[in-house]
């Protein structure tokens, strides 16, 4: 049976090249990267290569990237890690449309005594920048706002958010999980302080992700125990997973060239649905969206019924 | 070249059956278990099956097991999670020979205001039970002691530790990472409250582990964001990794039958080394060891030189 899989914002199919790249590290080269013998050192080299591949995709140096076990882990690491290190400031600013990792972590910090300010989006899914500008001041410990939204695909104004944060020396964590490999990203040039990406959203494996930590940004580890990842994340590295993420990042460099075609297909799908089915409308501002995402409202129909 | 790999306490080679079990979930069945369509539900079923396999190996019900991204993550989860939930008690008891995940996490809690009591082992690597008995009282928030030591292989007196903890209603977390699949374990019968195992130590993949949480034990999540693992660990599940861990657990059930043979080979290796090389001695009590581990001291030789 032919299947058209349309749930790539939930997870993607690992590319054949990704699985092929991982396999030797599940079979032949199974060493622990912390072991000094050649089994270990071969695994260590593989980590280094993957770090290079991912850093090329997101525009940073290799030493600014740490690997972890998933986007949720690293969003938790980023938000908690930066706060612990900057204790005098007690306000956190985030948006109303974040992934649950950001939203629930911030809510938890709210229960622990932080003031959490939630910036709304308008009916087109666009962030209220004026409100952001008015709440970010020298008392803010962290701004955590996504790069692109997973439901509407709307791209957030990262450049302006950076500007606002810089004016008050506020660290800015950007959840780039849905943006990476859909639009070109350069963390160094963008000026974000922290940014998270997850491999399984761009044809890499589940269970592996990377956190960008700008050089000079100080933070504490969430997972303690061992010198791995420069002491930022203890524990034996998931070598096959990291190798798969590296390969997926390499593939994404050429995949980005295909994105105009993806956008054209998405636009055609939307046009046909809007034309042929009455009482339908696209949710979210259409001129600033990642190319793979559509969000269509069907009046008087239940979402789950349509999905099934 | 024929190779004899002797670093299985650092990491093991994934079994061929494990890799074969994982592959379909890297290729064909790549759905997100949280998706309600059939791609997702197939992945969900795989998680359930793996949970059954692991719970059979360690003697507990499926609902008492949560999966995570590695032993270090779950040791951090266990120790922090239980402390947050029992705040009036401010003392932690651990041993002097724990894995760095336990040791460094406890040290960090020491800096955060907890009193950390470290129980020594004697020159045979045996835990000082009398000292443990004397320090565990109603002010202790958590005891975290390993089941078997990774360096000497010495098995710790879990039964007695449980007794001591129960007398003062102290939660006991047991790092069973090196014990599982080497000796039969039954967490329910043993009476531990929390216990951690990691797949890559018993021929499963890296980057996946499981935490046993006895029914009724309350703890907070470390990785927040999403309803996965009954709200105990947010984030898209590493389906291929968890499937691999399940298969490794199934294989370990029969692997346990081979352990007398492993012990006999280990004993022969030790005998030959002690006989043929002067100034050598076994470290650690030899009659209570996991069967795969030896620790031999070579006087006047550097460890790293021997290793290389």
What do you see in this structure?
The structure is a homodimer of 308-residue chains. The first copy, chain A, has helices at residues 16-26, 38-58, 71-85, 100-111, 129-135, 158-167, 187-190, 239-255, 259-276, 303-307; strands at 65-68, 91-95, 115-119, 140-146, 172-175, 194-198, 209-213, 280-282, 296-298. Chain A contains ten helices and nine strands. In chain A, the strands form two sheets. In chain A, strands 1-7-6-5-4-2-3 form a seven-stranded mixed sheet, with helices on both faces. In chain A, strand 2, helix 4 (100-111) and strand 3 (115-119) form a beta-alpha-beta unit. The first copy, chain A, has 308 residues and is of the alpha/beta class. In chain A, helix 2 runs parallel beside helix 8 (239-255). Chain A is 39% helix and 13% strand. The radius of gyration of chain A is 20 Å and the shape is globular. Chains A and B meet through helix 1, helix 3, helix 4 and helix 8 of A and helix 1, helix 3, helix 4 and helix 8 of B.
List keywords for this structure.
homodimer; 308 residues; alpha/beta; 7-stranded mixed β-sheet; two-stranded antiparallel sheet; 10 helices; 39% helix; globular
The helical percent of chain A reads 25-40%
What separation lies between the terminal Cα atoms of chain A?
Answer: 17 Å
Q: Tell me the strand percentage band of chain A.
A: 5-15%
SSE string of chain A = HHEHEHEHEHEHEEHHEEH
Query: Which spans of chain A of ≥5 residues are poorly predicted at pLDDT below 50?
Result: none
Mass-distribution shape of chain A: globular
Q: How would a crystallographer describe the biggest sheet of chain A? A: 7 strands, mixed
